[in-house]
Amino acid sequence: MEKVTINDIARLTGLSKGTVDRVLHNRGEVSRKSYQKVMDIIKELGYEPNLYASLLARGEQRTIAILIPFHETGTYWDIAAKGEAKAQNGLKPLSIVTRQFCYNQYSAESFREACASVLENNPAGVVIAPMFQYETQVFCQELQSRGIPYSFIDTKLEAPGYLSFYGIPAYKSGYLCAAMLTSGEPIREALIVRIMRDKERQSDPTVMRRAGFMDYMLEHSPGCTIRSLFIDPEDPAATDDALDAFFKEFPGVNHIVVFNSRVHLIVPYLERHPANRRVVGFDNLSANLAALKRGTVTALIAQRPEEQVHMAIQSLADKIIFQRMPERTDNYMHMDILIRYNAEDY
Amino acid sequence: MEKVTINDIARLTGLSKGTVDRVLHNRGEVSRKSYQKVMDIIKELGYEPNLYASLLARGEQRTIAILIPFHETGTYWDIAAKGEAKAQNGLKPLSIVTRQFCYNQYSAESFREACASVLENNPAGVVIAPMFQYETQVFCQELQSRGIPYSFIDTKLEAPGYLSFYGIPAYKSGYLCAAMLTSGEPIREALIVRIMRDKERQSDPTVMRRAGFMDYMLEHSPGCTIRSLFIDPEDPAATDDALDAFFKEFPGVNHIVVFNSRVHLIVPYLERHPANRRVVGFDNLSANLAALKRGTVTALIAQRPEEQVHMAIQSLADKIIFQRMPERTDNYMHMDILIRYNAEDY
DNA sequence: CTGAAAGCGCTAACAA
DNA sequence: TTGTTAGCGCTTTCAG
């Protein structure tokens, strides 16, 4: 069973390479008869195009756009961005390049601009980390109409025909978080630390996490008093004051949870006021991992954001080059539990 | 900055494509002078060969051999083998194929035969899951002398110039295991369930795990009495009897650990004799996960064996096609902690 | 609607 | 030691 080429098909059908190529790519301008002849032979011989030859002859370079929030080093989205580099390996030989387009995660306006910029570059595919429901849907509409495939990471939105989604189940992650915080035993009081500006975003993933958390508590630790405290990520001093005031008022609280990647913000305070606490947060920022290793943070729920963007890129590349659909559209990824004894090789 | 081709180089150096190709591939038969000229221009222009053109012209297919134990569905090595499929995606466009060569993990003779069979097929690279120290080293020697790159998964051996290793740190995994078993509090008694024939193998990964486990117990739970029980994986009835006898004699033991993937073997007994226990095992076999979800098993330490073979294959492919060395030779991978609340999307 | 032909960038056999 | 040449399998004009 030698591999069949376009020449074989041309010969067998009595047509020319050119015509065969036209039916192969639905380029039209082919009579029904020729079309059928070619299709029949293809099916019969199980023809598979040679990718190398095709790409060599084509000789162009496609680009996949990555649309994510601006990120300073060490932050969640910085880790996510690392997935781009990972993906490069597999992409280079396919002559696909990636390019980041960043937006301010607190400004819909900025997001819109980034979208426009993406479109200008006429990408072959787009990875989106959506924060603004409406703006995202408008953008996806446009991509859809241009026939550009796109995938979501982190948060899934209802949008027409997204290619794939990679992220963790938000509700369940909150549920798990509660299980880690309580270690299975009912508790009497707990504190949720929240970030001030997060409320402004239209699609805050922590909403679902809180819901999952609350449900677990209702089921396994009824009667627990849960309080919230808002802190300003830009203002460490104010954060300290807020925590100080809180613990003056409620000294008995020793279970603390933060539903986003910012648990590290309260670590300095906690370390200056040591106590026997359980503290649970999310995501493997280096600051979080350090606090975990020091014992200040009890557990972290991590989600490998690099993997998410890596896989999203990969699914787009597969679609673009091979016309292959991902095995699953929605890919809920594993929630990693990190404690001090398995944090080292993470 | 247009992309420079072999023709540009030929033109610039006043030599021919043929000669340029020869220096590009160290094929010899080139004068020092020509060699230098070409190298200089290459450096200057930053020439990068076009992979597609190269592979198209070459037109051959390389194969990577995977040398692992025989595996029935649902077992550890069966999961590992899934990594092969995952790798295929990225490999197909590189015209690399993979092929499994399996051996009986309790027979050195069988391993030797598998090695011979691998060599007959003249692979471009080999992934090895080593169980027999001496035989493996002999084999690696041979690969080395033939210039065939190879990588280890699961267990690392001292062998000359292996390309890469992917696995979890064995000692630390035992340490972590102990932390999960005791959940931080000292305990009085514990049981280690072991598999009979494992002692026969020359490189039993559970040895290091036990060492890590013991050290943790010494440090955090001194005075704990640790007992061992051997069971026969082929004989469920005998396993039951053994467990029965054990718990008749030591009814107070309610902390149980199994250092390999076979914790599922004791699950039927445990479920017929319910009690409040902590049971910790390794690896995400579906039987183990099921027991975890039912609550019979408290925690599982998993290591994504598919990832390990996937990455090992990938590192070999990179080496074979791109001449690229892996970023790190030894890759210690994360140990996943599985409990009932994060087992579902695993 | 179809065929012919000129590449894409590189390899490898053959001459010189 | 070097140059020439014929492809590898596919794409893409351009005539017809």
How would you explain this protein's 3D organization?
The structure is a homodimer of 346-residue chains. With 346 residues, the first copy, chain A, is an alpha/beta fold. Chain A folds into three domains: 6-49, 434 Repressor (Amino-terminal Domain); 56-167 and 305-331, Response regulator (Rossmann fold), CATH 3.40.50.2300; 170-302, Rossmann fold (3-Layer(aba) Sandwich), CATH 3.40.50.2300. The first copy, chain A, is 45% helix and 18% strand. Chain A has helices spanning 6-13, 17-24, 32-45, 51-58, 76-91, 108-120, 133-146, 170-182, 206-220, 236-249, 267-272, 286-294, 305-322; strands at 62-69, 96-103, 125-128, 150-153, 164-167, 189-195, 225-231, 255-258, 278-282, 299-302, 330-332, 336-338. In chain A, helix 9 (206-220) links the parallel strand 6 and strand 7 (225-231). In chain A, helix 6 (108-120) runs parallel beside helix 7. The longest helix of chain A has 18 residues, at 305-322. Chain A is elongated and about 90 Å long. The two termini of chain A are 46 Å apart. The relative contact order of chain A is 0.12. The model of chain A has no long low-confidence stretch (mean pLDDT 91).
What is the radius of gyration of chain A computed over CA atoms, rounded to a whole number of angstroms? 26 Å
**Whole-number mean pLDDT of chain A:** 91
* Fraction in beta strands of chain A: 15-25%
Q: N- to C-terminal separation of chain A? A: 46 Å
The secondary-structure element order of chain A is HHHHEHEHEHEEHEHEHEHEHEHEE
